[in-house]
Design a protein that fits this description.
The protein folds into two domains: 43 residues, no CATH class; 87 residues, no CATH class. Helix content is 29%, strand content 31%. The two termini are 37 Å apart.
């Protein structure tokens, strides 16, 4: 449905998958005059699917192409509006992420963040390291990324 309406449904864009989802907000036009679009995007958030994984103790690692967007990982410039996602992502248990990340800032971020943006190749390195740790017995099979 296109055109203008008296009310609009609120949406947000997921920081993990970049899909729009309904956030339960209802916007009303002043005086209930048909001035609003079908929906209004209120910013970013976490969709229900990825929120459930976060609630279960996972942190999302989303691969982005920093070279095409000018993101400088050393300066923590990555913003969900600016990043160019490659489409690859994994979820790692927060406790495992804190064990395998060597950088102090990344280790700290993995304890609280819902999403960490990583450069191309980082997901492959994380998976290889975690799978190697599972094979040698320092991590359990339950710690495998999903």
């Amino acid at each position: 449905m296109t055109g203008k309406h008296e009310f609009a449904c609120g949406t947000r864009t997921c920081r993990v998958c970049a899909e729009e989802y309904m956030d339960g907000t209802l916007y009303l036009s002043p005086g209930l005059v048909a001035t609003l679009p079908d929906h209004i995007n209120g910013g970013s958030g976490i969709c229900p699917q990825h929120q459930e994984l976060h609630d279960k103790g996972y942190v999302a690692f989303v691969e982005i192409d920093g070279s095409k967007t000018g993101v400088n990982f050393d300066n923590k410039d990555a913003s969900e509006r600016e990043v160019l996602r490659t489409g690859r992502m994994i979820h790692i248990r927060r406790t495992v992420a804190a064990k395998v990340l060597r950088n102090g800032a990344a280790k700290d971020a993995s304890r609280t963040a819902r999403v960490l943006y990583v450069d191309i190749g980082a997901i492959d390195q994380l998976v290889a390291f975690i799978n190697g740790s599972i094979a040698e017995g320092s991590l359990s099979a339950d710690d495998a990324p999903i």
